[in-house]
Amino acid sequence: MLAKKAIALFCSIAIVFGLSMTVQAKQLDDGTYTIDYTVLKAGETSVSIANDYFHKPAKLIVKDNKQYVELTIGKSNWTKKLTIAGEKETAISSNEKKDERVVQFPLKSTSDKQPGTVDVYINEKVDGEDFLYDNSYEIQFEFNEKKLEKTSSDPAEVKVAGEKIEQPKKESTNIYYYIISALILFVIVLTIRKQMKGRNS
């Protein structure tokens, strides 16, 4: 009896948690948003020095219940590689004059801290002397959902990197379809007429 009650209680809890997770995943409609974030040291709550390399806020894209985040990186020439939750960056745009680039990542959640890595490579003169620095850091991205604002619901602005755009079908294809259909119908009508004549004779 106790075992049955325990199983029933477990199922109830699982259903409640499952529903709450579903609601959370679907609470954002398709569109673009801005969201503030902070780059932290891995496994800590203190801010990473890499935080200064990223412009705020980020752009959050929601499409078909999937989330993507676009980050603008300052000091682009220094930050050679960036990952979030094991995903490599997809380049969206770059501005050599401003030393910036915009990159996009698929994002599982904005509620939890997302692990990441950043490779920093500096090879330039500092105070008139050659300076060489090459290192890789583990970091975390913490998103502030309290500073989430919707900017657009226009489908044209909800763009995901690498997404295939369906091309409209050419009119000629439709014309050929109608011609073939008409020919098939014509053959069927002729066949039926011949059969009718054969029966009458």
From TrEMBL:
Domain NEAT: 28-151
Gene3D superfamilies given in the database record: 2.60.40.1850
CDD domains: NEAT (cd06920)
UniProt keyword terms in alphabetical order: Cell wall, Membrane, Peptidoglycan-anchor, Secreted, Signal, Transmembrane, Transmembrane helix
SUPFAM superfamilies per UniProt: NEAT domain-like
InterPro entries reported in the protein's UniProt record: IsdA (IPR050436), NEAT_dom (IPR006635), NEAT_dom_sf (IPR037250)
Subcellular location: Secreted, Cell wall
TM segment ranges: 175-192
Topology within the bilayer: Peptidoglycan-anchor
Highest taxon above the source species: Bacteria
Signal peptide: 1-25
Name of the featured protein: Iron transport-associated protein
Top-level taxonomy: Bacteria, Bacillati, Bacillota, Bacilli, Bacillales
